[in-house]
Amino acid sequence: MIQSLKTLFSQLIEDQKQSQSTLNPNLAIASLLCQVSQADHNVDEQERSTQQQMLMKLLSISATDAASLLEQAEQLAQNSASLYEFTDHLRDLEHQQRFDVIQSLWQVAYADHYLDPIEEAIIRKVAELLYVNHTDYIRAKLSVAPDR
Q1: Domain holding 89: CATH number?
Q2: Residue 9: inside a domain
């Protein structure tokens, strides 16, 4: 019995290592967009549409490629243990690219016209993990926030 548990844990660790090594920056960005939309446990069509638009804009890809990427990313986001497994693949991006990612996360958060506190906490954590300073975090938020 103990041997079978060891085997199971070894397999899980190996699967985790393989999935992390195959994760590319595009999939990491898509996964972060999914993390934000899944935060309130209610992903509506407007959020899905915004995710796709943001991927097309950020990565200069077609709608079909963005939809395919989002399919993969949804599963990864649901099964992830932390944001670090995605942000770790994005640290080599230029500062402007990291800012654009944060701005896109805000777009998704505001897509359903309601900013959930968990969505905001996720974006804050991603900004910290990507070394986006607080000033730029706020600037990104204000650039997409609806007027009140």
Answers
A1: 1.10.3680.10
A2: no
Return all residues near 89 (Cβ < 8 A) that are at least 6 apart.
Answer: 23, 24, 25, 28
In 10 A of CB 34, how many CB atoms? 27
- Among candidate residues 69, 55, 51, 30, the one with its CA nearest the CA of residue 110: 51
- Residue 3 inside a domain? The answer is no
Could you give the CA distance from residue 31 to residue 9 in angstroms, rounded to a whole number?
A: 25
Q: pLDDT for 74-85, tens place per residue?
A: 989 988 888 999
82 is a domain residue: yes
Length of the chain in residues, anyone?
Answer: 148
Least Cα distance to 58 among 107, 19, 91 occurs for 107
93, 101 Cβ separation under 8 angstroms? yes
Domain that holds residue 32: 25-144
Q: How many domains does the chain have?
A: 1
Q: Quote the pTM value.
A: 0.82
CA atoms within 13 A on the CB side of 34: 24
